[in-house]
Every structure is written in C-alpha cells, then in structure tokens.
Design goal:
Elements (H helix, E strand, L loop, with lengths): L2 H21 L16 E4 L8 E5 L2 H9 L15 E7 L9 E4 L3 E3 L2 E9 L13 E7 L5 E6 L2
Parallel strand pairs: 6-8
Antiparallel strand pairs: 1-7, 2-3, 3-7, 4-6, 5-6
Length: 152
C-alpha cells in the first residue's frame, strides 16, 4: 500500500467518525451535560402533495403521519407523555432544494410554540417536482396547548 492510499483510508475513517458523531448526538452543551436527543427526519420526495402542518401526540397519529412520508416506519419509541412530534410537509414544489428548519421551541402565555422556517432553493437544484418534508421529536414543555407556526 502506498502513502497516498493510506492517507485516503485514514481520511475516510475520520470523515465516517465525524458523520457518526454529528448524526447520533456526540455533541454536548457548553456546561458539559449531554443534550437530549431529539430525533428528526427529512426528505425531498413523499406522497403528500398538499401542504400540511401536523402535531402528533399519540401513537396512532404518529403511525398515520409517518405513512405520509412513504418510508418504512423507523424503529424508535416515542414517549408521548413527555414528547411531541411536529411534521411539516410542503406539498408539491417546482424544484428540489427546499428545506425545513425547526427552531428551539418555547413557551409564552401557557402555549408551547414550535416554529420552523422554510429555506428556498439556492444555486443548482434538481429540476423536478419535489415534496419536501421534515419531522422532529421535541420534549414537551409545560404548557396548556401546543402550536406549530412558520416564520415568514
């Protein structure tokens, strides 16, 4: 094995390790405490062709919403006593490149707000109709109701 291929192999291993840490929550807060893992999923194509914001607070609604992605159900247990799921489906878009970015939820006037922003395509994107979506699990905050809202 020559030096160049050894370096490429080492670089590949480092990249894989970094991707694993970023994907599976290797980061921690500044105070050294582990941050709770809030699973999320996103994609550019799904059968849901109309825009939809969905708040899920039970297993039946979770299974129903997940069906809108057209993907196999993830093997994850959600504790609906302490967690809630937000699903955003943008419906048909003329190109790829759209993205949904969730913000940190907060409570105001006894209402938990889950905010998100839609990122528009930039640069070169797929020239095909897409149906972007994002789904994220959040820890429930002390509130009487929960609202999902887009930041315009």
């Amino acid at each position: 094995m020559n030096c160049r291929s050894e370096r490429a192999g080492t670089l590949s291993a480092v990249v894989v390790a970094l991707l694993f840490l970023l994907t599976f929550g290797g980061a921690s807060a500044a105070d050294g405490k582990e941050q709770p893992l809030e699973p999320d999923w996103s994609g550019q194509y799904c059968p849901q062709t109309k825009p939809l914001e969905k708040l899920v607070e039970n297993i039946m609604d979770w299974q129903s919403m997940w069906g809108l992605t057209g993907e196999k159900m993830p093997k994850i247990m959600i504790d609906f006593d302490s967690e809630v799921v937000a699903g955003i489906f943008l419906g048909d878009k003329p190109t790829g490149g759209y993205r949904i970015e969730f913000r940190q939820p907060f409570v105001q006037n006894e209402t938990m707000f889950i905010l998100y922003k839609v990122g528009k395509p930039t640069g070169v994107v797929t020239q095909a109709i897409s149906q972007p979506y994002a789904i994220k699990v959040f820890q429930k905050l002390k509130a009487k109701k929960i609202v999902i809202a887009e930041i315009k």
